[in-house]
# Entry
Amino acid sequence: MVPPRDEKKSSKPERCDRMIFEFYEQQSAITDPGVYAHLFDDLPHDVSRLVNIVQGWLISLPWSEAYGLDIPPERHREIYLRTVPEMLKGILELDSSSLIAERPLEKRKVSLCRDFAVLLVSILRHQSVPARARVGFASYYRAGTPRHWDHRLAEYWNAKSNRWVLVDAMADKTQLERLRFPIDPLNIDRSSQFLLAGEVWQRCRSRKANPAEFGDSPDDLGMPPIRYALLHDFDYLNKNELIGFDAWHDLINKPENEVTKDERELLDRIANVTNHVDSHFNELRNLYQSTPYGQTTRRRLSK
# Structure
């Protein structure tokens, strides 16, 4: 249960931490519901119920067979809707019912994991709860290759526990029955079930993990997809919650043998600040604004 705003405020640390909370309470250009904001006003202030509501809007394209669906190819374009207003418009065009109503499977917006996370973050920010989307690798999917899949989760400040909590808003009952091992989708364990992209980068760079066990498909494994995930987590923490296909600077998708020593050192620094957001918040923000990668992303989104 998300506490009332006054209780939440009273539990927050002071000074720099308050600045961080206020940053993640505010909508981004992508999560701002805009003209649809009023539709969030009557949603419950309970993360479990919000997750169920978001699941009632969306259907995961990679899991469509598990739901017995054959999604027509022309609907696959729905995964490219970047902003929350675009997504909500699509959701309501498919079914104009109240947002609290659970849609039939065939009338849910076709989505990937990123949409579930971003919509939950948008609702929580609307309710003045600090929230952010994160990128990393989940180990709980039933798959041999890769062992750890690129995945996007929501992370919110749980005032009662006085900590950030990761939530897999995509993992519904159908998916939970098919996972490699049991998880609590409302409290994902960072030590074993989900590794942030920066943690994976550091482990692989220090040869404490095998890069070939990480990827976003059986054909895309190793350091390139790890670098891709790391840079998207960097984007997300700076409140540019891109879709998975957004790759606007060559650092994110250049061949591994073309990454320079200076670029690897920059990626090492990005991994450190994304792993320790709250203690390196100013560095995170300054680095994003001063590097060509962050500047390119901000410029493209401003168009």
